[in-house]
Automatic annotation (TrEMBL):
It comes from Lepidothrix coronata. GO terms for cellular component: external side of plasma membrane; extracellular region. This is Ecto-NOX disulfide-thiol exchanger 1 isoform X3. Belongs to the ENOX family. One of its GO terms (biological process) is ultradian rhythm. The lineage of its organism: Eukaryota, Metazoa, Chordata, Craniata, Vertebrata. It comes from the Eukaryota. It is found in: Cell membrane; Secreted, Extracellular space.
Amino acid sequence: MAAAADGLGSIAIDTTQLNMSVTDPTAWATAMNNLGMVPVGLAGQQLVTDSICVPGFDPSLSMMTGITPINPMIPGMGLVPPPPPTDVPVVKEIIHCKSCTLFPPNPNLPPPSTRERPPGCKTVFVGGLPENATEEIIQEVFEQCGDITAIRKSKKNFCHIRFAEEFMVDKAIYLSGYRMRLGSSTDKKDSGRLHVDFAQARDDFYEWECKQRMLAREERHRRKMEEDRLRPPSPPAIMHYSEHEAALLAEKLKDDSKFSEAITVLLTWIERGEVNRRSANQFYSMVQSANSHVRRLMNEKAAHEQEMEQAKESFKNALTGILTQFEQIVAVFNASTRQKAWDHFSKAQRKNIDIWRKHSEELRNAHSEQLMGIRREEEMEMSDDDSGDNPSKKLRVDDSALAAQAYALKEENDSLRWQLDAYRNEVELLKQEKGQLFRTEESLTKDQQLQFLQQTMQGMQQQLLSIQEELNNKKSELEQAKEEQTHTQAMLKVLQEQEINVLTVALVNQDREKNSEKRSPGLKSEKEALLIGIISTFLHVHPFGANIEYLWSYMQQLDSRISANEIEMLLMRLPRMFKQEFTGVGATLEKRWKFCAFEGIKTV
């Protein structure tokens, strides 16, 4: 057993150890298929393919190729069939062996819990073994899951089993929860409930670390090979100087296609110090050959400059054509903004036309500035050429002439700057005039609105004056009522209760009516009276009432300084004119105010 624990061994299942009596062939076949093994003597389709069961198969062969190793138990890799759906329960059957019988757990119970799987786990912990279970019986039961390399049994009814491969641990975990009975005995020492769980073994972790280090080495090697492949090639080696090589190099210097390579070799030889009295003539001839290529390079430069000039000319012509089209587009927009056509467009159309016109003008100005810059560069180049053609004349110019020319250029520059400022001012004035034309219609509508608001304000002022007069009259009536109240109270004290019962009842009723009038406070200002009139009219138009937010939004249009709290306090002060009701249910519950002055008049 110790020799088997040193190496991985074979993964093949020794079918000679499975010659056991099968009392229930159907149950045996179901249980073995769930374990991924083919029962001996029964026809069936094995879940694990032959590549796993071949003794010479080595799953770590893929490490030599730089590919990540494949777990044979991974579904979809062609080694095992895809697992059954998770919602379909796995049916566990009775498993019969030579020396014992395994009874499945109750399917209604939850699956047995397991710890987190350690990396590279090949060892399982098996607890709940019968007391009389021997190492041979344990090997007989668990060797069906795969090749066992070591079994360490304890005296306390548990053991540790180490398999050859990691996927065999999953098959052993399947047996967790089974009840194990030795033979047909009913003694407690001959039965026990198995608990199979992952075990953390140092050997497994060491093999896993070795495997990871090997993978890391392969990955570093692969990256190094990739970097070497992508690294730019080293420059070719420069041969040493000799008369033969110098003759070959002189021929290469005369060839235009090999000139770059040859000139590099010549430079290296000169820097190495190969020039001496014997080789000076050869080096001089090679330097002379290099100098002869200067004329060829200048001709190539002139040809490229000519091509560049042609490209500049074509670009300038194309830019001029684009600028002409921009001018036409801007002219179309300016014509559209005139009064004859502008009045027939809608407000949205005018806005779009105005935006398009501004955008087109910006693009036209940018292109015109670019074109002017190109022309200035051409003029400067022409002036440089003129000055370069006559160097003798430039030397003859005295200081006074230079000063006069500088002064004339300065005055011309100032005049051009002033003209540019004048053009800018004219453009701004034109923009302002166009903006005023655009705003004429808007200003007319605003004037009409202002006139209408002024008329409404005058009408409201007249209403406020009339309401103020009514308030003064009501104040005088209230003072008279107070005097009458004091007089009646004095009479009530003097009169006796037995003689004037009828009069007292009338006075009490009158007192109640006056007290109710006193409870309703009077209006404090003309503004409150105006608000009461407007709110009464608004709520009378809405017979089902309106909430305070709707009422406040309407009043905001007339007076932006009024608040919703002020309106609500005014409504609560007049309960005979306005009442509050709740409408809706639950989340749609809403408070609404209604006008009820006419209802109070009808009840009276």
